[in-house]
Amino acid sequence: MNGHGQSEKRENPRETDTRAGVGWLLLDMALVSGGMTALVKAQGVTYPAFQLVFIRAMIGLIFILPLIWRHRMEMLRVKYPWRNLFRICCNAIALTSNFIAITLLPLATVNAVGFSRPLVTMAMAVAFLGERVSRYRWAGACLAFAGVLVVIGPGGAEFNAGVLVVLVSVVFGALAVIQTRALRQENTTVMMVFYTVGLAVITAVPAIWTWKPVAPLDWGPLLAIGLLAQMGQYCFLRAYRIADASVLAPVGYLSILFVTAVGYFLFDEVPETRVVLGIAIILVSLQSTALVEYVLKTLRRRK
Questions:
Q1: Torsion angle of alpha carbons 235, 250, 195, 93, nearest 10°?
Q2: Contacts of 227 (CB under 8 A, 6+ apart)
Q3: Fewest CB within 10 angstroms: 36, 146, 278, 285, which?
C-alpha cells in the first residue's frame, strides 16, 4: 500500500521483456533494413556485390576474432564439415544476390519478394526434412505466394533480371536455413564462427577478381555496411534471447516500412500500386496464419 492507501501496480517482468525484445528487433531493422540497405544501394552502383559482401564478412571476422581463438580446436572437430561448407556457400550466394538485387530493383520490391523465403523454406522443410505443415500454413503460403506474384508483375528486361536475382537469393537463403536446421547437433557458437570465417574465405576470390579501387571517401560507407550488419545481428540475437519468437516474428514484417521509407526519401522510389497491393496480401496472409496457429495452440493447451 502507498501513502494514499492504494495498491502499487508492479510491472510484469514478462511484459517488460517483450517490450525490450520488440525494441531490440526494431533497432535491428533500423540498422539493417534502413541503414545498411541504403548504403548497399548507394555503393552498389560503383562497387561489385562480391566486394561489398567480402568487406562485410571481414568486418564480421574482426568482431569474432576472440571467439575464433577460443573455439579454434572445436572448429577442427566439426561433425559435418561438408554440410557446413554447403550452408556457407548458400549464404554467400544468397547475400551476394540480395546485394545485386538491391541495386537493380526498388527496395520495397526486393523486400516484398524476399518475404517469400519463409514459404520456400517451408516447402523445402517438408521435402528434405520430412517436417509436417498444417493446412492453415499451406493456405497462408499459397495466399502469400499470390501476393509475391502481384508484386513481381510484368516488366522490362532489367526489372525481370532483378526479380530473377532476388529469387535466387530467396532460394539459396532457404537452402541455408534448411542446412542450419539439419545441423542441430553442431555447437551453435562454432557454427557461427565457421560461417563468418567461411564467408570471408569463399567471397575473397570473386571479390579480388572483381575488385575496384576504393576512393578514400568511400571507405567510410563501405566499412559502415559491415558495422551495421554486425550491430544488427547483435540486436537481433538480443531480441530473440529475451522475448518469445511468436511475438517477434510478426514484428519482423515491419521491415517493409523501413526499406520503403529509405527508398522513398533517399532514392525517390515511389512504390507502384501493384507493389503496395502485393505487400498487403503477403502481410495479411503471413499475419493471419501466425494468428490462427497461435489461437489453435492456445486452445490445445487449455484442454
A1: -130
A2: 59
A3: 146
Host H or E run for residue 289 = helix 273-302
Is the pLDDT at 15 greater than 70? The verdict is no
SS (H, E, C) 207-243: HHHHCCCCCHHHHHHHHHHHHHHHHHHHHHHHHHHHC
Q: How many other CB atoms are there within 10 angstroms of residue 34's CB atom?
A: 21
Q: How many C-beta atoms surround the C-beta of residue 249 within 10 A?
A: 16
Residue 130 identity (one-letter amino acid): G
Higher-confidence residue: 2 or 231?
Answer: 231
Q: Is 271 exposed, middle or buried (0-12, 13-18, 19+ CB in 10 A)?
A: buried
- Predicted local distance difference test score (pLDDT) of residue 157: 43
Alpha carbon 130 to its chain centroid, in Å, reads 24
Q: Bigger pLDDT: 151 or 40? A: 40
Q: Are 89 and 202 in contact (CB under 8 A)?
A: yes
